[in-house]
Amino acid sequence: MGVDIKIEHLTKKFGSQLIWGDVSLTLPAGEICVMLGPSGTGKSVLLKTIIGLLKPDQGSVVIEGVDIASCSEKDLYEIRKLFGVLFQDGAMFGSMNLYDNVAFPLREHTRKSESDIKKIVMEKMEMVGLIGAEYKLPGEISGGMRKRAGLARALVLDPEILLIDEPDSGLDPVRTSFINQLFVDLNAQTDATFLIVTHDIHSVRVVPDQIGLLYHKHLAMFGHREKLLSSDEPVVRQFLNAQTVGPIGMSEEKDADELAAEKDMELPPLPPIALQLEPSNGIPRKRQRPPGEWCRENGVVPPPGSFTADAEHGVASAGVATAEATAVAGVPPIQ
Questions:
Q1: Which helix (H) or strand (E) holds 144?
Q2: Pair 34, 204: CB distance under 8 Å
Q3: 97 and 177 part of one domain
Q4: 251 and 148 together in one domain
Q5: Where is this region: Disordered (predicted)?
């Protein structure tokens, strides 16, 4: 059973450099959340702050009534037992083989027998496709395999909160799709709270329940997936649709001359909102809302062609709304 994470007015600096300031959001219990942002905007710093590896300069991170930002080391140790963490580089112990790396949390935090540990470790390694590699050292395998081994280790204690930093880096598109499906299946099985940092736009469009975007030292937006995927907010629209037109430039922000030159440029239409991935067994997750429900509740007309199988595969027309699409979405067709 997942728990919610309440973040209020969070600010983090390194010396005089502000990473982000006054960040406030709630990660709902049991939902899959994704945090986006241009490179260097502090997404990994946010994950490390949530788990207490870094202390914020201001604000709070409250989990089960405990403020991670100000609690004692003893309380922090106990709260961390709720977490599973997949770091960006896998964070493997170089002198241990993959089996021992994955088994480490079980040996450190439980009194399970070695036979029980072996059963759990092999189950998790099978889930991430590493059977046969369990006795290899981290230095003997690819970065993608190290990432998958890190995921197996994050899962062995059946955490209530999973923090996942760029799970798709180093993975080919096929294995990225497998990992996405695995996250959805795990959430359905455990009802754990997920926070995933990623740059993979396809994953963002089909996996999460909630999406957030860090930009220019603040949280630009956080909310239901349909809210952001139908948003005309310039930075949100640009990032989620991988467009060159908008406030984000090669060095994060464009200068005034670039923005002025784009002022009268016509933006391409928003692509259709894809259907969310469903668990492999076809049974919707507890926290998964029906397609188009958020749009209906908030009077938002989604991009034409949304919430169809065609939209999921990126082949629906962005310029024509079909009767079938609008019926599924539950909103009036665009005339």
A1: helix 143-155
A2: yes
A3: yes
A4: no
A5: 273-311
